[in-house]
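We close this part of the discussion by returning to an individual protein. The sequence in question and its structure tokens are set out directly beneath this paragraph:
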Amino acid sequence: MLRPIDDHVVIRPIIEDSKTTSGIILPDTVDKEKPEKGEVVAVGNGRLLDSGQRAPLSVKVGDTVIFTKYSPNEVTFNNEDYFILREADVLAVVEGESVAAPAPVQAAVNEEPPLPVEDLGNSVPPMI
């Protein structure tokens, strides 16, 4: 297993579904963005302070975190991909349910059915 030093964190990236919000499935040949979410699998023993003590880390093994997109160092160990980054590059710990795209906003539903075309009379301007 990887053992990070100081304030470094080892993260197993969580790969999101390769389906867009509109339902289009993206093939593996499409260039995809690097993940920004992952599970913490190892943490260092903390940043060394001027006093000689170690500052404890805010994240722990098992946390699901969101981190900056371009900061992690990518490594492959035992045929698995990991990211190693400093704790300062972790933006948030996901608590409760998993991170997902926000639910689409539903348009207001008109309670009344639309008027038939013949009932509109002369209120519709002529098409030119």
